[in-house]
Description:
Helices cover about 60% and strands about 10% of the residues. The chain is of the alpha+beta class. The protein folds into two domains: about 1-60 and about 130-165 and about 240-260, no CATH class; about 165-235, no CATH class. A four-stranded antiparallel β-sheet has the order 1-2-3-4, with helices on one face. Strand 3 (about 40-45) and strand 4 (about 50-55) form a beta hairpin. The relative contact order is 0.19.
Amino acid sequence: MDDASVLYVLAAADASRSVPRLGGMARPDGVAIVSERFWSFSRTDGGTVAVRPMPRARSRVARLPFLRGLVKLASAIVPLLGRSSTASPRERLLLLAALCTPLLLLGVPGSFRTPALVVVTTVLVCWMFRGRTLRLHGAEHRAIAAAEMRMLVATWHGTARPSRFSPRCGTNFAVLTIGVSALVERLVVVPSVALAPLCLTLMSLMITMEIWLLAQRSAGLLARILLTPGLIVQRLTTREPSVEDTRIALRAVAAVLAADR
């Protein structure tokens, strides 16, 4: 999409009474924006944008409490691991290894599991936020906020600057997961079997997703309490984006909105 086409779509969205609910993901080489039906990836190489359909869960089981959390998490990594994903084959292997950490830790003696998990997590975070990612992460949040506020064209021109912090950011979910995981390990008794770490991890993720969904539906004190730690951490995981950074994210937004009409 050239700039004129992007601005046409953004202006139409600004005039619309509703837009699809959007999420996103920042990468060193671009920004992914997702809706329930489509995802797009806008690259930093001069405006190249790819659009792909999102997989849709057809099973009723995927809508059940707790299990739906795992389905949502699987959908969230489609831009990284799905068909025509934005990650290279080597990056996919690294991410898969990180996702399989609970299984990989089964062979580590119990007293060394926590240090091993810290090392793996640190490596993963450094990999995810390398290069230009921090500024593009802020741009992703700004572009999504601009869509929700119907300020897309003004944000494109730099006359509006919606917040670079987002209550729906995955950072908030990750911070919640840390707290929930600590509580689950202390309060839940799991038999001493080989798959105990995996069971605890899945249980923590499912509980966290239900808390996360509750916080998204609530606009009161409870939501602020649950999301404030993640919003604070976003000061580390985002940087103030330039207008050009924001335009990269807005091109992805325009591509999704155009496909979702």
